[in-house]
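Could you help me review a protein record that somebody else here produced? This is what I was given.
***
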Amino acid sequence: MTDPRDDLLLLDNQLCFALVTAARNIVSIYRPILEPLGVTHPQYLVMLALWERSPRSLTDLSDAIALEPATTSPLVKRLETQGLVRRARRPHDERHLDITLTDEGRALRERALDVPGAVMARTGLDPHELARIRDALAPFAGSQSVA
């Protein structure tokens, strides 16, 4: 007789496996859509946060996109090399690094307006369905731990 708990250890029954697989597949959907904009998916997240508010400190930006500053910093440097953002130390506090959109970075927002529609077309999901999925993931998306 098998232990009824054995099914709990099947790979296909693991929430972690479903989430990591879905995340990888979603990023692969975004890749060809973002390519003409010249940004990667993580760079797109940085730009989204800056389009909401600019300037932002590196720490605030990292918090907004749920990455460590050590991970965000290279993304910002590459975006600066592309001319989309500018990094500057605060004159009154050299410890803080502010990230600001350039004119080119602001202009990229116009082209990015087509990204959500392209994602919906690729997935076959409408805005309501995407919002439902996003909202269902909310318990796993914050900094709070899940029991």
